[in-house]
Specification:
Elements lengths: L1 E4 L14 E4 L2 E7 L13 H18 L7 E8 L5 H10 L8 E6 L9 E8 L2
Parallel strand pairs: 4-5
Antiparallel strand pairs: 1-2, 2-3, 3-6, 4-6
């Protein structure tokens, strides 16, 4: 059975989707962009953007009773692959080195609201 996960600590969906769905112990988190949920405004610069996206993902995981240790898969979309090293260091700082998820990172030509980064995740209950 599917359960919709929603929290005010992450940006509200800006379209016909949920922040996340839980199904059979698997949490599917929609792509998060760097919107500060308290102000509704975008943060700018790849460092601030990456931190905000990770905080948004963490809020959704927390609402579902999980942490980054539960994440089994991440998909990262970057507008510019030159931002990879900066993003990668910040991304890694939120994770436990003993439980890194599988991941791909791709460069795309455009993202919603013209942001520099979007990340989606899949997590599994222990």
């Amino acid at each position: 059975m599917k359960k919709i996960i929603n929290t005010v600590n992450a940006p509200a969906a800006i379209g016909p989707y949920s922040q996340a769905n839980m199904a059979n112990g698997v949490l599917y988190i929609s792509g998060q962009i760097p919107v500060d949920p308290t102000t509704g405004k975008l943060v700018e610069g790849i460092e601030k953007e990456t931190h905000q996206v990770m905080k948004n993902l963490e809020a959704i995981l927390t609402e579902a009773g999980m942490t980054f240790k539960n994440v089994v898969k991440a998909t990262i979309f970057l507008k510019n692959m030159d931002d990879f090293a900066v993003m990668n260091d910040i991304y890694a700082s939120y994770l436990d080195a003993e439980s890194f998820p599988a991941r791909e990172t791709v460069q795309v030509s455009c993202l919603p609201k013209n942001v520099d980064i979007e990340i989606s995740m899949i997590a599994h209950q222990d």
